[in-house]
Amino acid sequence: MVGGVVPTPAGPAAALRRLNYASRQAARPGLGPGLGSSGGSGAGPDRGERRRRRGRTGGPRPSRGGWARAGNARPRAAAPARAMDAPPISPVELLCLGSSLAFSGLFYYLYRKKARVVARIQEAPKLQVDDSLPAVVSAADGRCLPYVALEGIVLPAKAALSSQYHGGMQGVIQKLLLKEHRLIWNSLARSWTESERVLSEQVYTVPFLLASPDAEAVTQVSVESPLRAVCLPLEMVYERFQQPAHGFRDLLGHYLSGEKPKGILETEEMLRVGAGLTGIGELALHPDGSLHLQPPAREGEYFLCLGDWQTVLAELESARGFWKGAAMLCAVVGLAVLLHTLCRAIRHKHQDKEPEVEEDGDEGLEDSCVVCLTRPRECVLLGCGHICCCFRCFQALPTRLCPICRGPIDRVVPLYQA
């Protein structure tokens, strides 16, 4: 019955082996179709070679499912050891990850510190110097307000400081600064870079008070330890830059030494009498009835600034946002490095599995269908006797011709391998 399938029981085992052997001999390159018959004379050496191969592999070759399904595990070549030998993370990645984590922790600490200061300033009482202030402080626990924002006008407790460059100007804090500017030759950038060096810095202060803008009010608050404030509330009252005169010898010496003086900057800063000042700190009432603004005994920073308390709050919120952004940026960098390392490790793991998959495919290629190269060979094509394709591919053949020898197919016998 041409092209039909005749279901026959499993015949003698010898006949099936001969048919299987004949199909394998015909499928090999260099062998003619005549060797595919069931009784060729060249079967002896090939059968012996197959037996020797089976002895090395530990058992008969299974038809489907690979060596793992047959229960006789074939020793495979060792997988490449590049993923095992290579460290999971490179030194550069480890350095980047550690640095990003360290900096993110540092920046987060600074952010939390600024956030606590901002929260405490927002919760602090906002007071002005007036005659009702002593009663407010005396009603508090311990005759002390731990953290307040107090606004007033600067007045000297005794004699005030006079400006060295303005005859009629007086203040309570004075800062004189003498700074040298010079150019230094940078051999790497091949250019001159500017540098500064402080030659002299002098700070003078006298006891001063915060008074009410109202001239009729008599209450005054003494400001203690102004130099312990976060920053001094000074304004520039004098600035002059003096350029030295250089001769030919001086210029030649500058180019030879790589240092060229640019000039000397002389400045004067003062906290002037009558300026509006905001102090943020601890307000205490002493037994003699005097009020004192001093650095906080407990947690909190001491601020003295020109303007109101909202100016201080705005500057602190800006610093808080900066440290928060820096901490988030460093954390994102560390997370990116970590994800990159994990992706690389997963990719190397898949690459190590690919050679094993390819090897399994090469092992099963000899017993696979010559048409689809995926399914096992499942039928015997008669009359040539070739075992070369699966039943699905046989049904899909456009003509009833053997894919190996192009001979006509009389009938198809299903192949049973045990």
How does this structure look, described?
- With 418 residues, the protein is α+β, with helices and mostly antiparallel strands.
- It has a domain at 126-307.
- Helix content is 36%, strand content 26%.
- The chain is built from nine helices and 15 strands.
- The protein has helices at 13-27, 43-57, 66-70, 82-85, 91-123, 133-138, 248-257, 309-365, 391-395, and strands spanning 4-5, 126-128, 144-156, 161-162, 170-186, 191-205, 208-211, 220-223, 235-242, 259-272, 276-285, 291-294, 303-306, 379-382, 411-414.
- The strands form three sheets. A five-stranded mixed beta barrel has the order 3-7-8-12-11. Strands 4, 5, 6, 9 and 10 form a five-stranded antiparallel β-sheet that branches. A three-stranded mixed β-sheet has the order 1-15-14.
- Strand 4 and strand 5 (170-186) form a beta hairpin.
- Helix 5 runs antiparallel to helix 8.
- It starts with a strand and ends with a strand.
- The relative contact order is 0.16.
- Mean pLDDT is 79; it is low at 1-13, 29-84 and 357-361.
